[in-house]
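Forum > Structural Biology > Help requests

Title: Can anyone predict the 3D structure of Dihydroorotase?

Hi all, first post here. I have the sequence for Dihydroorotase but no way to get a structure on my laptop. I'd be grateful if someone could post the structure tokens.
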Amino acid sequence: MKTLLKNGLMLDEQSKKLVKRDILIDGEIIAKIASEIEDEEAMQIEVAEKLITPGFIDLHVHLREPGFEQKETIETGTYAAARGGFTTVACMPNTRPPIDSVPIVEEILEKAEEAGYARVLPIGAITVRQLGQELTDMEALKKAGVVAVSDDGVGVQSSKMMKEAMRKAYALGLPVVAHCEDNSLAKGGCVHDGEFAKRYGLQGIPSEAESIHVARDILLAEDIGVHYHVCHISSEQSVRLVREAKARGQKVTAEVTPHHLLLCDEDIPEPNPMFKMNPPLRSKKDREALIQGLKDGTIDVIATDHAPHTLLEKQQGMERAPFGIVGLETAFPLLYTNLVRTGELTLAELIEKMTRKPAELFGLPYGVLAEGKVADMTVIDLESERPIDPSAFKSKGRNTPFAGTYVYGWPVMTFYKGVKTWDQADIFVTFEE
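Reply #1:
Sure, ran it for you. Structure tokens for Dihydroorotase below:
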């Protein structure tokens, strides 16, 4: 089956300017890209003045299945991904049971294939049951399909265990994706250890809880040579450490979330659990360091850390509610509106951090629009402004601090392996209801 997208806009690789292009999809592959294409056999879709990008890639999501299907399932999570323009997502292992065995990996891949909304790349656990005591069979996990290892949700507290994990991962060519958190500093905290915590008498989580683990792991990884990737980096100290490691030529990479780029603890209006995430929203100075790190290449990619919870869980108050917010359906509009339209980032920089760079980090053959490549594509309306409406989410999660925020840059169509998995018509039907 052929599909022809007519009169779209693409970013020219050389000039970084928008140019008019038609794109012909033949089966799962991009067959042709040109200023004018005619093909009577193809189903034609008019996308005049809409931006066409490679399908977004998110290296950090929580699909919750198996074990927490009341929060999210592989089907609902990947449908949310499609709505947000994502065609590839890497799911974290802190499920129940964790992704620490071959059958769990196989189950996830099978359910993702059945759903058909987006490509799911499982990330295997570093330790059995994520307890930090015994390494998983990483070789078997890799053969089953994991693309990296992580104990995300908890930091690996033992330096000895982390060093052993890095040695094993290095031998297998697997990245170590680290949730950096020293429990002796972070335990019991619910927000950043800053002015907001003091104002409301809440126990804070200091920046050092993250940066101490970043420093430790960089030193361990330097000795071993493993690809070490920092999850959801949030502090100025951590950015500095990653920058120094890169300057030495070390294979250290990092991701940052939309919420850490756009918010700081000063933006929390009151003890509202929708603003509770881990790592927490840090200071304005930290936020500025994150933006600078993203611009200068210290931070490689943007990842959502999509973390759905039930509303009942999130209504338990700032201290008792679980950490996390959803992000798949709002990432691009929020970043485009608040960073690109304000001049902090260029459109080309934003797209690169959500497509080509994450593909390069994990050695994936995606993230580019080119003839002969897989037809993973996102069509975006850069001009229409609409509010973020959690009731319209395809994710089971409604936990976002951005509800009611007006944003531009909504994905209106998503193509995964040449098949249209999202169409703007679904949005408008929901909004009218």
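The first helix runs from residue 74 to 83. The first strand starts at residue 2 and ends at 11.
Shout if anything looks off.
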